[in-house]
Every structure is written in structure tokens, then in C-alpha cells.
Amino acid sequence: MNQTLKRGDTIAVISPSATIKDNPEAMALYNRGVDILNDMGLKVQYGQYASGKEYYKSGTAAERISDIEEAYKDSKVKAIFCTQGGDNSNELLSDIDWNIIKQNPKKLFGVSDITVLLNAIYAHTGETSYHGIDVIWGLGKNATEYTVNHLKDFLFTNYINYRHHPDYLQWKVIKPGKATGVCLGGCLPSFCLLLGTDSDPIRAVSKPFIFIIESIGESFSRIESYIAQIFQQPNFKKYCNGIIIGHFFMCKEEILENNRNVSDIILEYGKKYNFPVIEVGELGHAVENMIFPIGGQLTIEANNSNVVIAADLTTHIK
What we know:
The chain is of the alpha/beta class. The protein is built from 11 helices and 13 strands. The chain folds into 2 domains: 10-157, Murein tetrapeptidase LD-carboxypeptidase, N-terminal domain (Rossmann fold, 3-Layer(aba) Sandwich); 172-312, Glucose Oxidase, domain 1, CATH 3.50.30.60. It is globular, with a radius of gyration of 18 Å. The chain has a 7-stranded mixed β-sheet. The protein has a 6-stranded mixed β-sheet with strand order 2-1-3-4-5-11, with helices on both faces. GO terms for molecular function: carboxypeptidase activity; serine-type peptidase activity. The active site is at residues 112, 214, 285. Residues 180-300 form the LD-carboxypeptidase C-terminal domain. One of its GO terms (biological process) is proteolysis. This is LD-carboxypeptidase.
């Protein structure tokens, strides 16, 4: 379900992964992100452990799960925003009550390590959640008018307006073609934590899918190993229908001449496939992000002169 919000609606802010406490920069960005949401006319409700701390996490697994489930159960809450990513969302998956999410579907937003949660929700419930914007980095750190308008359009009209950021390079066609499928993926290392588990979205999918990828701080040798792992999944071979490559922030080899383009790696592993591949700047860490519906239907159309991305949020895919 993709409920349209209106001014005066309540949204919840939660921290399923890293703590924001004791980090002055993160707290300042957190406050700015909340201010942007308030300026949209939204009422912000905080999870009990949104600014909590348990070592490097915002709380114990049970505490973070409680915030997730309470946000979904609360009928006043119309959408849920994660504060930021981290490293430890995957430890929540075995104990989340997925029926609560299935019975109370809502827009959930997050990036980075929240990739784990977004894709697991699809694997367990078939519901759609949204990669692209969180409170601290998506709004507090990086947001300009581009992000604010992009988010407002979606929240208040239920339409994702895919358009090129005026300050970024033009979208690039790596391999032309047209494809439609359920959108999966996000931060590549985080996504790979799901493979082979009960929360594996590639194993759960039974129809064509479009795969989005980005990453931060990885060597290209490690990136290639993740890509190889993805391509080795049986359902990837059956159902992958297209790939969108995003921004790979601070990804490099110590020896400069060993650096590679991610698009070259994708083409190398994708020789046997005819699906389209495009590259965009508005997907990843340290950039302004477009919203991608994880579990929702996405279409990409790419030729030598034009790239079109479109989401159909009226079609339910499982």
C-alpha cells in the first residue's frame, strides 16, 4: 500500500542500526533533517531508542525491533524515516514480527545499511519500502531544493519524479535496452548480507527484477567479489532484467592502476545477458538521492540518446 500523506500527518523517526549519540556532527544534521520534515508540515514522532546508544548501535536488538514494530502498529504514523545506516541491521531479521509489517504497510525510508531492512521486508511480506533518503545524510547533510522537492512530490502525490540532478553528470547508457521488474538492491555490501538467509530477496523473487547498486569505502577487488556473488545466485540468472549503477563513494585500490569502473565489471560478468545497464549519479552515499521503491515496479528505457526511469506504485509484485 502506498498511502498519500498530507500536511499535519505524523511520521516516525527510528534508528535500526548505528547510534547518533555522542556524535555532535550527526546530532546537528539530525536536527536539520527533522526541521526539513517539519517545514513540510509533518509532525515528527521519535522512536524510544532513536537517539539511544548500545556501544556503536542505537540500542539492543530487542530495543531497535521494538521501535520498528511500534512505528508500524501506531495508526497515527503514516510514514517511517530511519536516521542513518550503520552496520548491524541484519542482526534484527530473525526476531522481527513480519506480520506486523504485512498487516500495517507504510512508507519506510532509509539508505546504506538500511538496505538490509528494505529488502528483507520485500522478501518476507512482499511490501514496498523506499531506498534513497534518510534523516541525517539524505536530508540533514546533502539536501538541496532537488531532494526536498523530490521527497515532497512522492509523499504528497505518490509520484516519483525521476529527473537528472542539474549538478551531476548526465545519466549514462552502459548497455541499451528496455526492462521492467521489481526493484531490489541498494548498498552492495549490505545487500550481500542477505544472500542465502531467510531474508534473501533474490531467492524470494519469482518475477523479473531491476537491480540497483552503490557502495562506500570498498576496494574494487572487494566490489568485484560482491558482484560475482550476486551473479552466481540462481534467481539472478533467471530473473534479473536490468541494472542501475549508482555512486561508489571513496571506493579505490591502494595501487592507482588497479582501479576499475564498476560498469566494466558489470559488463564483464553480464556478457551472457541482454538486459539494459545504466549509470546515474543520484544513487549512493554523499550524493542527493532519487527514491527507489524496493519491492515496487520499476522500468528503465535506455538508448543512445535518452534514459528514462519510471516507477509504477499501483502494481503489487511478489
